[in-house]
């Protein structure tokens, strides 16, 4: 009987020890996995915060850089690239338009020498400029367009488009019903041609300006002001502020870089085999 009791005690002790060992093993194992998961979460969080911090720093650096070159960034985004953009550099400044209805300036005078000189000073009759070969493709010029011979510097002859727009606006001014006879009688510039060509030239200019105004549509607004204190009435305020490019710098560059007034007879490269030659004016 004594032996049997001892066996039972030993059996009970062994069972208890096994149970205790199993429970301790389970607790230890569970604790190890929980600690590992926690470390992973902390490491992942640290990496994410570090990545966000790095992105923030990179953003600050790029933001500071682009803030210093915002004019270039904006002009490249909204305008066709050209040598003008590279050599002049486009800048913007706030300017107020002169929108007076009754107070005329020199650009609005009737036909005569003074108004002609004012428009001439804007570069409306400047000759073309040279676009270097390396700028041609990015400037929208095709490889088979007219080129200047290499012995005369090479490149492509071209006109600054903004000055062509002003040329067109000047022609519309000259063709106004109260100016037309004056310029027609002078017979200079566009008016050396017959009336049929003059009409086509004018309508060409009108439509070019239409397309330009639609392309660069001004999204600003015209408010209204009160006029006539004795009997106030609303009137549109045309004297609005605008972000304007540095026109004078562009004009000076175009003036300084005009092609020769009387170029040699062999100034241009003749068309190469395979170059497009249109059967008529496009």
UniProtKB/TrEMBL annotation:
<keyword id="KW-0812">Transmembrane</keyword>
<keyword id="KW-1133">Transmembrane helix</keyword>
<feature type="transmembrane region" description="Helical">
    <location>
        <begin position="41"/>
        <end position="66"/>
    </location>
</feature>
<comment type="similarity">
    <text>Belongs to the ustYa family.</text>
</comment>
<keyword id="KW-0472">Membrane</keyword>
<dbReference type="InterPro" id="IPR021765">
    <property type="entry name" value="UstYa-like"/>
</dbReference>
<protein>
    <recommendedName>
        <fullName>Tat pathway signal sequence</fullName>
    </recommendedName>
</protein>
<dbReference type="Pfam" id="PF11807">
    <property type="entry name" value="UstYa"/>
</dbReference>
<dbReference type="GO" id="GO:0043386">
    <property type="term" value="P:mycotoxin biosynthetic process"/>
</dbReference>
